[in-house]
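Q: Got a minute? One more chain.
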Amino acid sequence: MIYGYAENGFHREALNMFSQMRVSGWIPNSFTMVGVLVGLKGIQDPVAGTSLHGLIVKTGLESNLIVGTAMLHTYAKCGNIRDSYKFFQLMNNPSLVTCNAMIGGLIHNELFEEAFAVFNQLQLFGLWPNSVTMLSIIQACIALGTLILSESIHGMVVKRGLCSDVALANSVLNMYSCLEDLEAATKIFTHMESSDIISWTTMIGLLVRTEYAHEALNLFCRMGCIGFNLDTTVLMNLVRACALLGDLKMGKSIHAQSIVNGFGCDIPLSNSIIAMYAKCGDVYSSRNVFNQMLEKSLISWTVMISGYVQNGGSMDALNLLAKMRLEEDFNIDPMMLASLLTACGEIAGLEPCKQLHGHVFNAGFAQDRLVQNSLVSAYAKCGFVELAYRVFEEMLCRDIVSWNTIISGYGINGHGEDAIALFKEMQRGEENPDGITYLSVLSACDHSGLVDDGLMIFKQMVEEKRIRPTAEHCGCVVDMLARAGRLSDASAFISIFSDGGGSNIWRALLGGCCIHSKTMLAKLAADKVFELESEGSSHAVLLSNIYASVGRYEDAEVLRLNMTRKGLIKNPGMSFLVGFRPDFG
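A: Always. Here it is, folded:
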């Protein structure tokens, strides 16, 4: 009865019955002690465990292998790993079950290297690991994250002929998945003698994490042909694959399957679907899913707010925050704060930015790096670079994003010399500038007309740091030269870097020609842009403006008529009027 209670989760009832048994004068046997130990393990009471150990010694059951194994396992599960290991060391000839319990207990207490030490002692006891042993030790491999060790354990699984065990094969597959070794995982999956839903889910998840989204969807189609039923884990991975691909049609199909299979109310899955629609640019569908959720978590609100920000709906994001504060009792976390501060920066909303900054202090996130970087960016985009720098100075620990953000902030506000000074300070420190750093400082030079400084920095990037220039880097340099009237230098630069520059460099040259009314060169640049981007209209508008500025009105009119005939419509300009006084509490 005691063992039955304990095995079925009625741990306290098992212990109460044991107390009644003792009061009645019955002497417990080994089977009774195992049941009581299972009960103690369930309630995780180390003090009671020590008391029972004394009773086990008193009744002469300490040498019983089954009782001893249960005792050390109970100690380990209660967090008393020291006494568990002492008990193990006192055992003369531990069985494989005992060793497995000790290895499992050490892993449960995150003593992974010690678990391997016991594992290596198996041969000294004349024992060979079985599938239970390997399942436990693979968990230690995953925690240590060492490929060589993992390959060694995999080799032992093969050598011991344990590959036919589906649970063990899945564990090996998961081990390589955690290491993100796609090649090894694919080999394991392909050669599995039999597979189950866990095998397919693990493989699909790995493909999504390593951004092989097409392959993940193809594998799902194969899985469907075999006849496995869908679960939420598979569906979440498929939704993420659709988000990676921006495949709205497939995303809607997966969403429909989640509803058909009865997972429409699953909160984590709904959160993934909201994020997927937002990544695909369909924020309307994101909001529909959000509104239909019967219960929302903080992540639900965060994902929806982030979705609005990603799709240019900064005001909608801030309004949703106000709605959350009215309807829910959630505390804003760093992830949500980062999205909201990005929204403030996009609309240059200083007032909500200050309110959120106040909340940062009240919530204890003043030294959260993600929040601090977002604050620096938001204040800079609001035009208050001094406030941005104050936050930057207060950071106890900066990363490369921090430096890139403050350099970019000074650049967009026209403080090119300060941006260069910060760039040099960064180089003197521990952070090495990356491609984004160089783009930020080049942009700062461009905005401030610091052409010689910009050219010197670009040269350093290419020749000293060996960073390959992107289309954005090249476009920035061309724009910098062209704005300064150095169109011949800009043309010479294009001749060297035209392969990697794309349409960016020609559009930048066209912009410079517009400033300096160079029609011949402008025509060449416009033709190149049209050749690379036949659908755009901005280059034609710029060329038309150049013709008009030098009195060639007929040419300008012909160009505009050609645009109309080809269906190239100029997007109308829009302004945002900041006339709100938000209050987010």
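A: Confidence is low (pLDDT under 50) at residues 576-581.
Q: Perfect, thanks.
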